[in-house]
Amino acid sequence: MNLGVDFCGIKLKNPVTVASGTFGYGREFEEYIDLNRLGAIITKGTTLKEKLGNKAPRICEVTGGLLNSIGLQNPGVEHFLKEDLPFLRKFDTKIIVNACGSTVEDYVELCKILNDADIDGVELNLSCPNVKEGCLAFGTTYEGVKGVTEKVRKVLDRKPLIVKLTPNVTDITQPAKGAEDAGADGISAINTLLGMKIDIKKRRPILANNTGGFAGPAIKPVAVRMVYQIAQAVNIPVMGLGGIMTGEDAIEFMEAGATAISIGAGNMVDPETSIRVIDEIEEFMKANQIDDIKKLIGSVEMN
Amino acid sequence: MGKKVLAELVNKEELNKDIFKFSVRSKEIADLAKPGQFLDIKVSDKGEPFLRRPISIHNVDKENGIVEFIFMVVGKGTKILAERNVGEKLDILGPLGNGTFDTDKKYNSVSIIGGGLGVFPLYELTKKLKNNASLNVYLGFRNKDLVTCEKEFEAIGLNKLCVTTDDGSYKEKGFAIDFMKKDIEEHRVDKIFACGPLPMLRAVKEYADKEGIDCELSMEERMGCGIGACLGCAIEYIRDDGTKTYKHVCKDGPVFDSKKIIF
To answer: Right CATH number for A5-54+71-198+216-296 from 3.20.20.70, 3.30.70.100, 3.40.50.2300, 3.30.870.10?
Structure first.
């Protein structure tokens, strides 16, 4: 039975990765799971310089998931390369760095550094809903995504470039095509949906930032639909994510067109979610006599 | 160092209206647990509510591998938890938190102050410090109906136990901190430990910092993963070089040096 997939040149031992912002730099999970089993670890969103993030409350539970507004708190790329990457490299898994910036120049500077780093790929975060500058400002249009991706592509010539898209758009195929036309190697979708929760007694939003990114099983149908639309619209592979909690959820994304998948909010409920998803994918394949997981990719047929 | 365990609920007691004490069997957690740490509990297997519920450890019986926690029914998660039955297994991450109460140091005289639900995590601490210092414990509650665990604290053997209610419906009337301050003015202590609502912690911090008394606070913030990965439960913190950053209650705390916290 083969679980291995090739995601834009990155050979994953299985299609299960862990999503940016829900897995730190892996350390917190080492005591709970065998990191060697993961297809890849996608790091916490990392910026050129340290970022402190937003005021608390940053987290708020809602039906079927949660809202978060962390604000990209991270120690900066130099700290990551010195302190965290050597730790991650001890494991037999691929390392993809989620890269964020406030300006095009930030993205370019950061990716210049990452081009020379001992990593397996870069996920360009054009979709964080919780910072005032950058990210979403570029991520919602064809031109916006194409513009920043082109500039990054010029300096990132030795690493696969994946663009992570926001679902907060009318037509997800537009930014997806922008990424492809700019030379991206892959797309990951979706980031969180912009949401809000109000404390009805205080008549104020619970999150200090008022709004936050909505994640969890409640957003899965939106994500599956968007992954399908992207897979139809572009010829580069898609990393599917959004509310995956089980092996069956993962299979659904792959049938919709995802080459690999990512566990996000699921890591926050149970540090073992990603490993359980791998086991459940295997069980599904066994039960349904599927010898190669690649046969599932994009296998859905419309009514 | 946390573990993921399925721990049997071996005893369940309603101590007061809507306030429950659960005893679970987990040798792993009991062996590792330190005063101030918490458990992150999945209240239901059905996927709702989505997140775990962080609840402080109240008491540890290392010999028998029993861990106890006390919680109040305040929302849908704690309501579901309260309905769990003895004999069922609870999915628990724990013990969590690297910032714990410092019980290794030798103290002469210590004040321990808790407010409301913040009283419960101080029990394990008080037990631990029993042979280490002269202990003055101040427990504040809103009213008589909420007074919980008084007997348990009494049984530890303290220099002083002061129970207060905001409305005077039981024992001393007023805020626990005012009684603590009065005692400290007469007999200075070399340490204060505190756990409780934010206004109480802020007042304790201001007092301790002003008086130059070493002080540890157990903090709270809305939590996501419970293990330090999502960076949700942020609190403002002063670094050694004086600059401001955010630390995280679940991983760096829940117990912090009062001088480092910004309210």
So the answer is: 3.20.20.70
